[in-house]
């Protein structure tokens, strides 16, 4: 356990991490804008090319990718689990090392999880794992291309969702935004379960008899909403407020948009499933 804790929370690379355009890969605004725009253009272009190709060849189905989607799901599930454990251990270490300072400001561990003190910089253990989470977001982008190739389907919600989450994770680091520890914990545990389930079904094993992935996403969005309310309450009550509250506000707006789009997508999917079951019976 000591070795495990060392490599996930006490290693010098983790402890001495600092978010900086000169020291951290993919840490500039230009890189972010280029990555997001390239992702959207590439996805739309691939979708159009496949539509043209399949229409000319009179092919109705997409192309098989073999074990690639399953391996992708397994990889994300493992990475998410590692990030979850890493940031949990790192948060515990940060609480242990800075508890003496909190007594002066009357800050509790729960308040720290939701609200960083003003002046917090993006350095140290927690931000190392936030950076790892940010980099892992690029792996999620491949799922859009898998969907286009396999199902000839490009969802507007998927494009907006993936792009927004990439931007949000960048803002967490750029502005040392409050709330990110809880957000990463909730998101990574959700991803570990969801992508583990996707790997399970993609290798041919039996799935759940209910929309497992959709329900997990709904629970995640619900928990996020509750935590956002908690951040706002602490910011209004706490002297000095929370660090990075401007970025948090932008984050909240994006989350609200994602939630609305998801609810629309979820209701549409449920309606189609109900209609299909009705036609079957």
TrEMBL record:
Segments traversing the membrane: 29-56, 68-89, 109-134, 179-197, 218-237, 243-263
Keyword tags: Fatty acid biosynthesis, Fatty acid metabolism, Lipid biosynthesis, Lipid metabolism, Membrane, Transferase, Transmembrane, Transmembrane helix
Domain of life: Eukaryota
Compartment annotation: Membrane
GO terms assigned for molecular function: fatty acid elongase activity
Keyword 4Fe-4S part of the UniProt annotation: no
Membrane topology: Multi-pass membrane protein
Predominant place of localization: membrane
Any one GO biological process: sphingolipid biosynthetic process
Keyword Cytoplasm in record: no
InterPro entries the UniProt entry points to: ELO_fam (IPR002076)
One GO term describing the cellular component: endoplasmic reticulum membrane
The protein's name in its UniProt record: ELO family
Signal peptide: none
């Amino acid at each position: 356990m000591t070795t495990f804790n060392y490599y996930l929370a006490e290693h010098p690379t983790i402890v001495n991490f600092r978010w900086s355009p000169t020291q951290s890969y993919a840490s500039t605004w230009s890189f972010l804008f280029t990555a997001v725009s390239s992702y959207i253009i590439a996805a739309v272009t691939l979708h159009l090319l496949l539509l043209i190709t399949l229409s000319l060849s009179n092919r109705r189905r997409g192309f098989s990718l073999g074990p690639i989607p399953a391996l992708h799901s397994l990889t994300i599930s493992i990475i998410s689990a590692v990030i979850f454990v890493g940031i949990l251990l790192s948060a515990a270490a940060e609480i242990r090392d800075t508890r003496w300072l909190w007594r002066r400001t009357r800050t509790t561990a729960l308040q720290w999880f939701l609200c960083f003190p003003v002046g917090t910089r993006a350095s140290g253990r927690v931000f190392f794992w936030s950076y790892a989470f940010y980099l892992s977001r690029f792996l999620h982008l491949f799922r859009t291309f898998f969907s286009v190739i396999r199902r000839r389907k490009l969802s507007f919600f998927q494009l907006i969702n993936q792009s927004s989450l990439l931007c949000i994770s960048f803002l967490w680091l750029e502005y040392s935004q409050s709330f990110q520890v809880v957000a990463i914990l909730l998101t990574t545990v959700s991803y570990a379960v969801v992508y583990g389930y996707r790997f399970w079904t993609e290798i041919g094993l039996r799935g759940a008899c209910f929309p497992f992935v959709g329900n997990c996403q709904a629970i995640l969005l619900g928990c996020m909403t509750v935590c956002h309310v908690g951040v706002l309450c602490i910011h209004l009550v706490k002297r000095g407020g929370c660090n990075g509250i401007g970025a948090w506000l932008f984050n909240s707006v994006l989350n609200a948009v994602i939630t609305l789009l998801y609810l629309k997508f979820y209701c549409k999917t449920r309606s189609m499933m109900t209609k299909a079951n009705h036609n079957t019976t």
